[in-house]
Design brief:
Elements (H helix, E strand, L loop, with lengths): L1 H5 L5 E7 L7 H7 L3 E4 L8 H12 L5 E4 L2 H14 L5 E5 L9 H12 L3 E3 L2 H9 L7 E3 L7 H4 L4 H8 L6 E6 L8 H11 L6 E6 L5 H10 L6 E5 L4 H6 L3 E4 L8 H8 L4 E4 L2 H4 L9 E3 L4 H13 L1 H19 L1 H19 L6 E4 L1
Parallel strand pairs: 1-2, 1-13, 3-4, 3-13, 4-5, 5-6, 7-8, 7-10, 8-9, 10-11, 11-12
Length: about 350
């Protein structure tokens, strides 16, 4: 959405195609910003007839460039090219490193990997993922996720928002953001906080996100005697406000592409305690801007949170450094500029330029 609203409309006219109707306000926000949208009404299960229908429609869609964010949509484009001889160039943006479907790796390597140019990777970890599939280095382009910096510096009544969350003046708010799945290691955070009960730290735990482990985590919190301290907030559209109202961001995840939540925490100047995985270290420096702990090391995670609570002046300097690093790497304006150059490269390689080029996401 940010890219659509910020791109140069005198050169690129965005149109967003999406698979299913949902209750998300995203469509309304896009339309209010003057961005056309179209629902593809994709079936819940794979249907060859539907695949062929959309592939044929793509060829005759009249667009000049495809920007693909979902592998499924990419497969429609691949079929359109090889069965219907579509000549529309495409780029593919990849932000994950997990293969969730049968034959997905094969399709990504021999479909998207050959048809799309460039393949836009949002982190070095994702770059490595494609390199491991033996994709030519020249087809890969690193463009970090862009963020509108202004939303992190806007006027904000922190005390009022904390009151809304039920946080007292002396509460030390520990927040984590992410899907409630195994790889995010929420269980480690709860176990670490159980160790903090012996200290004098008056902490509360905010968990933003939904997922299949929610009930198990509820039970774990109760078993650890943390039920009154843990707040499961579900999926939120006010994550930035939650971060700005908190005292430390804990991120024990063991697998990521490039974690936006860590970037947002840095841009909020919120102290960060995170696992030592490469995507995290691409965002913050382990010695000057964040407290980094080994993956699955519950004691180190607890000690890191305790360190933040006991060293406010040093942590303030670290948070300021994290903010400066994040602004330098993840400013939306920089990402838009890089993305538009990628569009230009794709159009020069596969299609004649025109006065207006319509980009489909």
């Amino acid at each position: 959405m940010q890219y659509c609203k910020a791109m140069n409309r005198s050169r690129f006219i965005p149109e967003v195609w999406y698979l299913h109707e949902t209750e998300s306000p995203l469509k309304t926000v896009l339309q209010e910003a003057g961005v056309s949208t179209r629902c593809l009404n994709a079936p819940k299960k794979f249907q060859p007839r539907y695949l062929l229908k959309i592939a044929k429609e793509l060829k005759h869609s009249g667009v000049d460039l495809l920007h693909i964010f979902l592998p499924t949509v990419g497969y429609y484009a691949v079929v359109s090219r090889f069965l219907f001889r579509s000549k529309i160039p495409a780029i593919y943006s990849c932000g994950g490193v997990q293969l969730l479907l049968p034959l997905q790796g094969f399709m990504m390597k021999y479909g998207l990997g050959r048809y799309c140019y460039p393949i836009v990777c949002n982190s070095r970890r994702v770059m490595d993922f494609w390199r491991d599939m033996k994709i030519d280095e020249s087809r890969l382009k690193l463009i970090h996720n862009g963020h509108d910096i202004s939303q992190f510096t806007a006027t904000f009544d922190r005390n009022k928002y904390r009151e809304k969350l039920g946080l007292g003046d002396t509460d030390f708010a520990i927040i984590t953001v992410g899907r409630l799945i195994e790889t995010k290691r929420h269980a480690d955070l709860l176990n670490a906080c159980a160790k903090l009960k012996a200290s004098q730290l008056n902490f509360q735990i905010l968990i933003a996100g939904d997922g299949p482990l929610q009930e198990a985590l509820h039970q774990q919190a109760t078993g650890l005697g943390l039920a009154s301290r843990v707040h499961f907030l579900g999926t939120r559209d006010d994550v930035v406000a939650l971060l700005r109202a908190s005292d430390v961001f804990a991120f024990p995840s063991e697998s990521e592409g490039l974690p936006n939540a860590v970037i947002e925490a840095a841009l909020c100047k919120l102290p960060i305690v995170a696992s030592d995985i490469k995507p995290v270290l691409e965002i913050v420096d382990s010695e000057r801007s964040a407290t980094i702990v080994p993956v699955r090391d519950v004691s180190a995670l607890a000690a890191g949170i305790q360190f933040v609570s006991e060293n406010p002046r040093l942590v303030e300097k670290m948070s300021a450094a994290a903010y400066q690093e994040a602004v330098a790497k993840f400013d939306l304006r920089q990402a838009i500029n890089q993305l538009e150059h990628a569009y230009e490269d794709a159009l020069r390689g596969f299609a004649p330029s025109s006065q207006h080029d319509e980009t489909v996401f």
